[in-house]
Amino acid sequence: MTDRRDTASVRESALTQRRHAVRAHLCVLTGVAVAMLLLFYTASVRADTRVDAEMCDSGTGNLDLDRSICERAAKAYGGAFRAALLARKAGAEIWLGKYEYALRSIDEALEAFSGSALAYFERGRALRCLGRLDESVQAFNEATTLWQGFTITFRERGLAQLLQGQFERADADLSHSIELRPA
Questions:
Q1: How far is CA 68 from CA 13, 16, 27, 33, 64, in A?
Q2: Number of domains within the chain
């Protein structure tokens, strides 16, 4: 006969796993901010890793330090949360002008979770900075497909299209980004 406490603990364990999966999925939809809530409520995370991830989200003001903190925190996680942290790291690398490093981080992020709109967004930014405009627009297209409310993606894609000389498409994207998020 099965002990009722064992059955209850199995149910609770399954429920906890589902909660963690939902939280990880939400971090892709709303960016790293929701991922920080996941850290706050997840008791199984070591304290030093939690501090690294929180610092990755808020930034220290030192982009090299931010980059290393995000990398350290990302090693402790998998899935969507890892992808969000690696995309954040790629953002710091882009600001530092380390575009090839950013692309490597983004590749890692997409290996961890292929549905990361944030990773595709950062890929688009890095490729645009490298002058690879067609690939940049494709990455922004993927980001907008994954998350149509990701306003800044329309603006960034519009800028890439402007650089390509696709003025009508650029105007449409830039206008759409203003409609989604007026000044």
A1: 33, 31, 21, 19, 6
A2: 1
